[in-house]
Design goal:
Blueprint: H1 5-15, E1 19-24, H2 32-43, E2 48-53, H3 61-67, H4 71-74, E3 80-84, E4 95-99, E5 105-109, H5 115-120, E6 125-128, H6 144-157, E7 183-185, E8 188-196, E9 203-208, H7 209-214, E10 222-227, E11 230-237, E12 248-252, E13 257-262, H8 267-271, E14 278-283
Parallel strand pairs: 1-2, 1-3, 3-5, 11-12
Antiparallel strand pairs: 4-5, 4-6, 7-8, 8-9, 8-14, 9-13, 10-11, 10-14, 12-13
Pfam family, one: SAM_HAT_C
Family: Belongs to the SAM hydrolase / SAM-dependent halogenase family.
Organism: Streptomyces longispororuber
């Protein structure tokens, strides 16, 4: 049997299992995630599906943008991501594909979800998902996450060139969320709670390691910290084991941002901390 270009492409795809990372706010209590995985595998049976998370707080685009932020740092450069937090599904038919200079590919509604990918990974190319070949023929307006975002990711994983998903857009066409930055105010470092560690109750702020270093605050420095009416004093620790059980600590989380925690306790629950609360600190 003669070897055709299609055969060669199919063989190459089987030999290389493309990674398709899924991030959604669907949860795991029903079949939504399973349906999406089945559809991806129906289009690209060789795909290696990775669950980034399905526990984004429903409709919370800001949180989703934080959960997908570090994906380009840890996944292989040719990984594909389908990201769905789509509050206006069925009304807003505006989903995009984005490629980074590192080679990662992201599919998401154009609602700000990719804000931090744009800021930290950069944009090599962005396109509107409009081509019929990468969208499901029958669109269910309540499930655009499946019919547009997941479908496009699956087709590209199966070999459809990125350039064929739809018309090219300008970087300025990408919807971006407003993001707060830490500042120095009257001798205090002022930031905010950016994300809560849902499993452990740790509090992750938007105050970065680099910003603390600019203020000459290093590990071991004694910190005075105020958040939501709670005041605490603690050295800036490297890790939890440097603090007694149940005691508070400040540390640099794996996301490179200042974290607040109780060693083997739930800091957020104990002090009623929510995302957006102001955090103030200074070295004593």
């Amino acid at each position: 049997m003669p070897v055709t270009a299609a055969t060669e492409r199919a063989t190459a795809l089987v030999d290389h299992r493309p990674i398709v990372g899924l991030l959604t706010d669907f949860g795991l209590v029903d079949d939504a995630v399973g349906i999406c995985k089945g559809m991806v595998l129906g289009i690209a049976p060789q795909a290696n599906i990775v669950d980034v998370t399905h526990d984004v707080t429903p409709f919370d685009i800001y949180e989703a943008s934080l959960y997908i932020r570090d994906s380009f740092r840890y996944f292989p450069a040719d990984a594909i991501f389908a990201c769905v937090t789509f509050p206006h599904t069925g009304v807003q038919d505006d989903a995009i594909g984005l490629r980074t200079p590192q080679g990662h590919t992201y599919f998401a509604p154009n609602n700000g979800l990719l804000t931090r990918i744009v800021a930290e990974a950069g944009v090599a190319e962005v396109r509107h998902i409009t081509a019929d070949k990468v969208r499901r023929p029958v669109i269910d307006p309540t499930f655009y996450g499946r019919d547009i975002v997941m479908s496009a990711a699956a087709h590209v994983a199966n070999g459809v060139p990125f350039a064929e998903i739809g018309e090219e857009l300008a970087v300025t066409d990408i919807t971006l969320l407003e993001t707060a930055r830490p500042a120095l105010v009257d001798g205090w470092v002022v930031g905010e709670v950016a994300l809560l560690d849902k499993n452990y109750g740790n509090v992750w702020t938007n105050i970065t390691r680099e910003f603390l270093e600019e203020q000459r605050i290093a590990f071991g420095a004694e910190l005075e910290i105020e958040v939501n009416g709670t005041s605490m004093r603690t050295p800036l620790r490297h890790t939890f084991g440097e603090t007694g059980e149940g005691e508070p600590l400040a540390y640099i989380a794996s996301r490179n941002q200042l974290g607040l925690a109780l060693n083997q306790g739930n800091f957020a629950a104990r002090h009623g901390i929510e995302r957006g609360h102001t955090v103030r600190l200074r070295a004593r």
